[in-house]
Design goal:
The complex is a heterodimer. Chain A is α/β, with parallel strands linked by helices. Helix content of chain A is about 25%, strand content about 40%. Chain A is globular. Chain B is mostly helical. Chain B is about 65% helix and about 0% strand. The chains are: A alpha/beta, B mainly alpha. The interface between A and B is medium-sized, with 38 and 31 residues.
Chain lengths: ~130, ~150
Amino acid sequence: MRIKLTSIMVDNQDKALKFYTEIFGFVKKTEIPVGEYRWLTVVSPEGPDDLELSLEPNANPAGKTFQEALFTQGVPIAAFEVGDIAKEFKRLKSLGVAFTQDPTPAGPVTIAVCSDTCGNLIQLYQPPKT
Amino acid sequence: MIVTRSELIRLCRARDLLRETHDARVSIRDAAREAAMSPFHFIRRFHAMFGETPHQVRIQARLDRAKTLLALSDYSVTDVCMEVGFSSLGSFSDLFARRVGAAPSVYRRQVRSIMIVPGMLPAASTPACLTLMAAAFRNFGEADRRAFERS
């Protein structure tokens, strides 16, 4: 058994694809229409290239309630690793991304939290240098 | 931009207010006041957090409520239009058709034709997360599937 797929709920798949590719810099891997939605996945160009992130519509009211509760509480729903958080923070801020936490040391890692504009707070973290 | 904890909560509260479809008179200015921000800062921060303007969120909430009413209620299309705060049937129908992909009366017929339990929205109208993958591959031809597996 392997982990090759993970997912994030988004309030609008068009908006999500735009944000996750143009702002975060991921690359679209799969896009298959299913009714009014799509099976839509992205991968990171920095790898691993076989780990896909599915951008799922959160049309289910239960999912929406969960997602909005976490957002209002300021709780990130996913975390992505970055090599240089100060640089990434500056880059994303210049693209108009809203952060609820600027880069802050937390033990061995440094974390920041931003909105993905699709209903989620995302934690970015820089792992300790080895 | 940095959005503080308190601003985040106020923005979420303003969004809830904008989504209130029963009181169509909530203006963007009212929502900004609820968030304790100037309208300019409110719109900028709102868009950076939610990826949509306050106006877009308000319109979407009205269309979502219209979808529910068309699916579940006996209201006429005109009643639905008024109920969700539109004053012109023509502009409501146009906007609905553009966003939902079918005119209100057509949407009503479609959703009712797949309704299994009366009074409940069919599960098919809200895809259950990763089951989308199964549906996607069912819709997919064998050749395409092989192409995907190679990618």
